């Protein structure tokens, strides 16, 4: 067996020890005689797995006790509807900050449920930077302020937390959750699909301050009503049990690596390798403003895009996979989430150096 | 490793060869160097896995070409809202047949989106039989007629397909899909959570006639709009990729067993063993009308319910697990889906005989 370096934006590389443990336990979890996939979600074995996953997530992120942790389904695109359904709370509008493709999707979907005030936008600059907080036009009566903490496609990331006063801050953290410490108490709601830093696609994490739930719109499906799910330990419907199990293994792996401080250091080191190379190169370049560069998703361009296919073929031949940029922006993108080892980034940089020497 | 006989109502036992293959392929699917869990849903490997799962499902069920097959999220409880959102199609009301706990949940949720006419109910008889078609009060202007083809909790199952004329028939088949052949063309929509006969919890199957989609209510989340998902091959949001992979392995296993005719024979034989014993026993009994007994979920009662705990403890000691009945009905329940081998049912009946001899 030969494993590759998988730079996919998500679903993405998972820690190899997690996959090994999952393989070993596939037919018989801890002497239960069952796969986790086969367990009743109401049986004592799965209830323990679920509770342990939640406990570890709370420990890693330091989630305050007045926040609920929910394990749901539908991913961030589902949440784009579910968030306004739950969070409008009798108000008529919400503020959204537009930093790229994922913000745009969130805004469009939210408009089905209320009015949206775009408080700031990076559109004029081609979404290569995060609009500074000073320029945001916030509505003090907004139900919440929504941001996307890391734009997976454009590669811009908040390295600061916006102050929104008494209006709850809501963040789509799909692509940078658990990549660094976060002060959860500064947010009203954090959500994200699992398929970057957490586990398999199909699991959605929601962390919500408990005073904000319980006022969902009447048209909210019960399965997506935060209060109903919180009251039922995320088991109003059958949860994605296997995904929760894998997430628990990933949380445990992060803890064993030293937790989120250690992850942040690991991720800064990997990103620095790549950005330093890009900035020194006259052939490859990063389109993103230095202060707002994502440590998770690194878009880059070749000086001559006629060489894009040649670059991708050479990468594939070296088992460096999924480097093609998103179709909406073109170029290349290296996603280097928690589970990407530094060796993967070194191998990529070495290949880019070699490619530049040959074609530059 | 010692595997148990798992009579859970869902998530439920999976075929052992499927779990073995999943374990073997966990770190490296077909020489790709990746786990299926790590694959981009837009990469060629996963697109092939997804297409093969759909092809096998279409082959097994004989799905006509004018039906879409969708792989979604949220389970049947999610669909309880998603179905009316998509299927009301400008009409104001839908007909629902009430056959037990799952029908009741569907009815309650649908009332958020339109008016519900309960066309027939098994309530007066304690939900121990399916109301005969002759007694249904159908509305010719209804958007659809909804049934639950198998009540997982009460243990009643349709062994016939209701004729609803020009009004589309919608069926929650969560707990008996793929247990027997079905004439899909008699239905407008079939849906079900995967966690009984298909694969892991978190995957929802939707099979829908293509002329019925495209008129979702404006408040329908994009992730749950059948038309948008059909137009995007179920990839409008990131699908539950690992669940789809496991489902494909299960479909392949069913095909290797001889397909749905063979499954039906296997399931009839298992159910007959259990029901014949129950009917011959003076200590155990089935509460369900003979004609409407489920071949998947077999509720049964002990003559003296003070012995329930003793029965469950003895079962556990023999590795016969998850036999406790649902809290809403009490007693016992043996769920004997496709993956339950006949040996499991024989072991259960042998234990019941022994228990009756000792305590009867």
UniProtKB/TrEMBL annotation, chains A, B:
The modification N6-(pyridoxal phosphate)lysine is found at residue 196. Its EC number is 2.6.1.52. Its main location: cytoplasm. One of its GO terms (cellular component) is cytoplasm. Its cofactor is pyridoxal 5'-phosphate. Binds 1 pyridoxal phosphate per subunit. Keywords: Amino-acid biosynthesis, Aminotransferase, Cytoplasm, Pyridoxal phosphate, Pyridoxine biosynthesis, Serine biosynthesis, Transferase. GO terms for biological process: L-serine biosynthetic process; pyridoxine biosynthetic process. Pyridoxal 5'-phosphate binds at residues 102, 152, 172, 195, 237-238. PROSITE patterns: AA_TRANSFER_CLASS_5. Belongs to the class-V pyridoxal-phosphate-dependent aminotransferase family. SerC subfamily. Homodimer. Catalyzes the reversible conversion of 3-phosphohydroxypyruvate to phosphoserine and of 3-hydroxy-2-oxo-4-phosphonooxybutanoate to phosphohydroxythreonine. This is Phosphoserine aminotransferase. It comes from Luteitalea pratensis.
């Amino acid at each position: 067996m030969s494993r590759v370096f998988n730079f996919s934006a998500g679903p993405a590389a998972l820690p190899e020890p997690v996959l090994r443990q999952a393989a070993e336990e596939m037919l018989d979890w801890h002497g239960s005689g069952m796969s986790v996939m086969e367990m009743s979600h109401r049986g004592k074995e799965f209830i323990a797995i679920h509770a342990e996953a939640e406990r570890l997530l709370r420990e890693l992120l330091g989630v305050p006790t007045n926040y609920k942790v929910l394990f749901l389904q539908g991913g961030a695109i589902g949440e784009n509807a579910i968030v306004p359904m739950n969070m409008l709370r009798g108000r008529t509008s919400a503020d959204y900050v537009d930093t790229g493709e994922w913000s745009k999707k969130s805004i469009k979907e939210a408009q089905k449920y209320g009015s949206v005030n775009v408080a700031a936008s990076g559109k004029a600059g081609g979404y290569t930077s995060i609009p500074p907080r000073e320029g945001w036009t916030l509505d003090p009566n907004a139900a919440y302020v929504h941001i996307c903490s890391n734009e997976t496609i454009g590669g811009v990331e908040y390295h600061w937390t916006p102050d929104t006063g008494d209006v709850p801050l809501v963040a789509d953290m799909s692509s940078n959750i658990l990549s660094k410490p976060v002060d959860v108490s500064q947010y009203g709601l954090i959500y994200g699909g699992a398929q970057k830093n957490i586990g398999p696609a199909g699991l959605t994490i929601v962390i919500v301050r408990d005073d904000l739930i319980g006022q969902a719109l009447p048209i909210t499906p019960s399965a997506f009503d935060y209060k109903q799910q919180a009251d039922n330990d995320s088991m109003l419907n059958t949860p994605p049990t296997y995904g929760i199990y894998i997430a628990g293994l990933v949380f445990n792996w992060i803890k064993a690596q030293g937790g989120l401080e250690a992850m942040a250091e690991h991720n800064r080191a990997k990103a620095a390798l790549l950005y330093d190379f890009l900035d020194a190169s006259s052939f490859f370049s990063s389109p993103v403003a230095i202060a707002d560069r994502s440590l998770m998703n690194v878009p880059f361009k070749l000086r001559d895009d006629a060489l894009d296919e040649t670059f991708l073929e050479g990468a594939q031949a070296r088992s460096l996979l999924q480097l093609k940029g998103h179709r909406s922006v073109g170029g290349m993108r290296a996603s280097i989430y928690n589970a990407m080892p530094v060796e993967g980034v070194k191998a990529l940089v070495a290949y880019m150096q070699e490619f530049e020497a040959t074609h530059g």
